[in-house]
Structure formats: C-alpha cells, structure tokens
C-alpha cells in the first residue's frame, strides 16, 4: 500500500483527500503546515506528497523546494494541489520541483490518475 503525505492547513480538504485516497487503497499521513510537512517527509518517506500552497509559516512553494532539494527526500514526487490557478503559480510550482500541479476543487479521477502516474514511474 502506497503512503501519501497530505500537507494542507484545511481540515476539510485534508478529510476529502483522506476519503478519496483510502477508497483507492492508499494510506495517508497528514501535516497541517509546510514545516511539519518537510519534517514528516524526511522521517516517514512517503511514496508521494500532495502539497497545498497557501499555508501559514512555510508555504507550499517553500516546502516543495526544501523537499525536492534535500538528498533524503528529493526522490519523492510532489504534486501541488492549490486554489491558485494562475499560469505563473503553475510555473513557479514546477520550478520549485513539483512534478504536477492540480487545482482545487480537484476531480477525484484526475487526482488518482495523477498519483498513479508518478507511483508507477518508480
């Protein structure tokens, strides 16, 4: 069972992601901010990370950069899932090391397809 780290400060979004992911056979780990997410990525070594952008303290772009550049976590694919839908946000997210960028509210089928595409790359 693949484990997915959800880094999102919204309990509602986290709950929705957990529902979708468990239905599709994934285990989940949660962090409510970027700093905790970076720490959990290092200690838990999830198979993939779903990253929100707008969070207090360390935002999703900063956390993505830290995770994708650290030797112990750079192999973990990060998929940004955000309400920010500008082309510049997508470009900036990819420049920080994100593999993909999905916009909330995310379509369940698209989310699972995206996750599976990166898990099968391993």
From TrEMBL:
InterPro entries: Bact_response_regulator, CheY-like_superfamily, Sig_transdc_resp-reg_receiver
Keywords: Phosphoprotein
Domain Response regulatory per the UniProt entry, residue ranges: 3-119
Pfam families: Response_reg
Modified residues (4-aspartylphosphate): 52
One GO term (biological process): phosphorelay signal transduction system
The organism's place on the tree of life at top rank: Bacteria
Protein name: Two-component system response regulator
Source species of the chain: Acinetobacter populi
């Amino acid at each position: 069972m693949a484990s997915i780290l959800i880094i999102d400060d919204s309990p509602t979004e986290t709950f929705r992601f957990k529902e979708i992911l468990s239905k599709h056979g994934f285990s989940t780990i949660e962090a409510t901010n970027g700093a905790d997410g970076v720490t959990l990525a290092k200690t838990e070594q999830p198979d993939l990370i779903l990253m929100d952008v707008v969070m207090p303290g360390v935002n999703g772009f900063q956390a993505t950069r830290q995770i994708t550049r650290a030797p112990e976590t750079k192999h973990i694919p990060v998929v940004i899932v955000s309400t920010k839908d500008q082309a510049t946000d997508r470009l900036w997210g990819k420049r920080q090391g994100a593999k993909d960028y999905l916009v909330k509210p995310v379509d369940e089928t698209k989310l699972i397809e995206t996750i599976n595409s990166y898990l099968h790359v391993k």
